[in-house]
Write a structure and sequence with these properties.
This is SGNH hydrolase-type esterase domain-containing protein. This protein is of the alpha/beta class. It has 10 helices and 5 strands, in the order E-H-H-E-H-E-H-H-E-H-H-E-H-H-H. The longest helix is centred in the middle third of the chain and has 17 residues.
């Protein structure tokens, strides 16, 4: 049987589906893969439009329990909630009530198909919503403060269940404010109709909802420190964690297979 690489799975909605984009020359998924090359495979299971109820229903079709030929799930990053936070609609409704959203997140991270692998799990908060722009794209569908409450719910679930937290909301908002000269944060947040100012958020969330390459860089910087603890501080020359051995120490050298 061919060797399998342990996996880092990106499980979420369009925010993870878009993580494979090469917009402006940066790709979040490729950046993560480069960091863990030869040690882990990055698997993108970003599903545009999905909410937590959709994701939970299809989870058994996405994650298999451990078994012959099943790669180990080593890391799981979950980024869901942007669609759950959409306001209730008469058709094409994506809304999931906040309490149900929290229950769904718990059901995802405690699902037996996942826990059987004993992965390192990280919940990622949905980013801020630029309601000023989003209301132009989809009027009456999303609200800044409603979206923020779903990000807070992720923080609560991560703390209550002792899993990792990537606070993308905070990373994006803090950075946007730092790049918006003169903005008074005491009055509220960027993208909120109460402040009436988009500031640098317009560069991070071009349509008010989805991440630009600049925003994906912020996500990568937040994820990066959590990967590679397995070989941190070791001699890089040992290639610690490689699934297949470095060519200098591979068994074929003893057999003189590759010697001229």
């Amino acid at each position: 049987m061919a060797v399998s690489y342990p996996q880092i799975v990106l499980f979420g909605d369009s925010l993870f589906q878009g993580a494979a984009s090469l917009e402006d020359g940066f790709c979040f998924q490729a950046a993560v893969q480069q960091q863990v090359l030869r040690r882990f495979d990055i698997v993108n299971r970003g599903l545009s439009g999905y909410n937590t109820s959709n994701a939970l229903k299809l989870l058994p079709q996405i994650f298999s329990p451990p078994g012959p030929g099943v790669p180990k799930l080593a890391y799981l990053f979950v980024l869901l909630g942007a669609n759950d936070a959409a306001l209730p609609q008469p058709v094409n409704n994506q809304h999931v009530p906040l309490d149900k959203y929290k229950q769904n997140l718990v059901s995802i991270i405690t699902h037996s198909n996942i826990t059987a692998h004993n992965p390192k799990i990280f919940l990622i908060t949905p980013p801020p919503l630029d309601e000023l722009k989003a209301s132009e794209v989809e009027p009456g569908v999303r609200k800044h403060r409603v979206s923020a409450s779903y990000s807070e719910a992720v923080r609560q679930v991560a703390a209550e269940h002792s899993v990792g937290l990537i606070d993308l909301y905070k990373a994006v908002m803090d950075y946007a404010i730092s790049k918006t000269p003169g903005f008074d944060r005491s009055k509220g947040n960027l993208g909120d109709p109460e402040t009436g100012e988009r500031g640098h958020l317009k560069n991070l969330l071009p349509d008010g909802l989805h991440l630009s390459s600049e925003a994906y860089k912020l996500l990568y910087e937040a994820v990066k420190p959590h990967l590679g603890k397995e070989w941190e501080g070791t001699d890089a020359a040992q290639r610690v964690g490689y699934v297949l051995p470095d060519w200098k120490v591979a068994p074929w050298l003893e057999e003189d297979v590759l010697k001229p």
